[in-house]
Specification:
heterodimer; A: about 260 residues; mainly alpha; 10 helices; about 85% helix; B: about 290 residues; alpha/beta; Rossmann fold; six-stranded mixed β-sheet; 10 strands; about 35% helix; globular; disordered C terminus
Chain lengths: ~260, ~290
């Protein structure tokens, strides 16, 4: 009986400790993002990895998300005789919600897992210790560039997703199902405001922070929290992707309610 | 035995070190002094904490109780610039090399110079090529760590740790996992570097016979304390069952390495102030097994 209570207490304490460590990690990363010198070469490399190399995936998922929205939107709206509003529906859904969230989830799966694995392997093979022993700061070299790169890349990728998705919706709704080009884009311009676009940008910016934070943290503390060796790295990577995805969706709700 | 030579200076001092991990007590009062310019071999059973002790000296792990002093400064309590300046004078050879696997050997060896000094690219290139040549890796500068053998990896890691001419070198099992020929070449490299740079060093190793010719003293870590300390010949002559068990067949090998003028110093003596340890129980037939 007491054994169960003791175990519960111990796991509660450990959870709080992990959360605290994660919070401190974010604070340290924030400091080294702004205090010079910034490692630009590393930053550019990570922008290329997180941003540029994700464009193909974003393009594909954006196109098909827009096309599905075109179909579903048309059949739902035509029940109320409102199929003329397909353009604003697709535009608003993508710009405010689906664009930031699906882009972030794709980047988590692609780049986030790779970042967690890379930093985790560096931790296991003592490369991070080697950096420290050279008198260099691992946060400056490994963590801050990923944060900055994610914050730069996510809004840009979201924008690409939105544009491609809107065009995908146009191909299906405007061309295939007969809504018409003028109606599709004309109504969209009338109903989509700058504030809607900024909402999507703010969301994608904060999702970038979440992805970098969770994935860098899980990799950095791979030996401590996830166990040792290759199993530890794989566990850290899995946890990074799952936690990142869950946090993105949870934070999406809070951002929507704040920005509403 | 402590020297009263006026030139004696303890570059590394470990005083009454205590440390535990997850309730398991690793150190129960480790005390050790390494004079400037000398090389100490640290031996002990697998898992007794040799690498952990080395990481304490590097300041990667903080002690629970006790002090680790490097060149007069407490490295366990040093922060910020003080810690960075201490670490700049230190070189660490990790057991797995810890080379950055996304960089070539050249970039790895050049990394400390590029990041910590304002030397020109040309000067950095000269020094890196010289260091790589010293460790016998000329021609492999542009290979990646995944493309080279274990022995070459260790040599490259050695080149990287020596490129900034450190005053203190810490070697974590430099020959473990290597074949005897490659292991011997690494030890010879370390000896050549020592003669060139005159660093103070700790070598953590299992292969006591291989390192005995290049070290000044040996310390044995056991049961959370320094069980024995002395020269190779003190260890050879020791009556302590734990020491004799650890030395095993190597006693004969060390006997062959008797240097001129060395008469063998009798039983290994602990440094002044060490905890009781096994030497007081020398001759106990149950030996040192816990």
């Amino acid at each position: 009986m007491f054994g169960i209570i003791r175990k519960f207490g111990a796991s509660a304490i450990e959870t709080v400790w992990k959360m605290g460590t994660m919070g401190l990690f974010l604070a340290k990363a924030a400091v080294f993002m702004v205090v010079p010198p910034i490692k630009f070469a590393r930053l550019l490399k990570q922008v290329r990895f997180i941003g540029l190399q994700s464009v193909a995936v974003i393009f594909l998922t954006g196109a098909f998300s827009g096309m599905v929205l075109g179909f579903q939107g048309f059949y739902s709206l035509s029940r109320f005789g409102s199929d003329a509003f397909l353009g604003p529906m697709v535009g608003l859904a993508l710009i405010k919600e689906l664009g930031p969230v699906i882009s972030a989830l794709m980047v988590t799966g692609r780049a986030g897992s790779a970042i967690a694995a890379e930093i985790g392997i560096m931790r296991m093979s003592e490369q991070i210790d080697a950096l420290e022993l050279m008198g260099l700061n691992p946060y400056r070299y490994l963590v801050a560039p990923n944060f900055l790169a994610a914050m730069i890349s996510l809004p840009l990728l979201t924008a690409i997703f939105d544009v491609v998705g809107i065009f995908g919706g146009y191909l299906i709704g405007g061309k295939l199902l007969g809504v018409g080009t003028g109606t599709y884009f004309g109504e969209m311009c009338a109903y989509v405001a700058m504030s809607d676009i900024m909402e999507g940008i703010y969301k994608s910016f904060s999702f970038g922070v979440i992805i970098a934070w969770v994935c860098c943290f899980k990799g950095y503390y791979a030996g401590v929290f996830s166990g040792f060796g290759s199993e530890g790295v794989s566990r850290a990577t899995t946890q990074a992707v799952v936690l990142s995805s869950v946090l993105i969706l949870v934070w999406d709700y809070f951002m929507t309610s704040i920005l509403y | 035995m402590r020297s009263y030579n006026l030139d004696y200076f303890a570059m590394i001092e470990i005083e009454n070190l205590h440390k535990s991990f997850d309730g398991h007590q690793v150190f129960r009062g480790v005390s050790l002094e390494i004079p400037k310019g000398t090389v100490l071999a640290l031996i002990g059973r697998s898992g007794c904490g040799k690498s952990v002790l080395l990481k304490h000296v590097a300041g990667l792990i903080k002690p629970e109780k006790g002090r680790v002093t490097v060149d007069g400064e407490d490295i366990g309590r040093a922060r910020g610039k003080a810690l960075t300046s201490l670490r700049t004078r230190l070189g660490f050879l990790f057991q797995g090399g810890a080379l950055f696997d996304s960089m070539t050997l050249f970039e790895n060896v050049a990394f400390p110079l590029k990041e910590k000094t304002r030397l020109s690219d040309r000067l950095i290139q000269e020094r890196v090529f010289r260091e790589i040549e010293n460790v016998g890796l000329s021609g492999s500068e542009y290979k990646y760590p995944s493309q080279i053998s274990g022995g070459m990896l260790k040599r490259a890691a050695l080149a990287r740790s020596l490129v900034s001419d450190p005053e203190i070198m810490l070697f974590d099992e430099p020959t473990t996992g290597l074949d005897p020929v490659t292991g011997q070449s690494i030890i010879e490299l370390i000896d050549a570097c020592r003669q060139r740079i005159h660093f103070t060093a700790i070598i953590v190793t299992h292969e006591i016979a291989r390192v005995a010719p290049v070290v000044d003293r040996i310390a044995m870590l056991h049961d959370g304390v320094i069980w024995a300390e002395g020269t190779a010949f003190d260890f050879y002559a020791s009556e302590d069952p734990m020491v004799r068990t650890f030395m095993g067949d190597r006693i004969n090998e060390i006997r062959k390495m008797q240097r001129p003028g060395d008469q063998g110093g009798g039983p290994a003596r602990p440094p002044a102030g060490a905890t009781a340890g096994a030497l007081a129980d020398s001759g106990n037939s149950t030996g040192g097994n816990q």
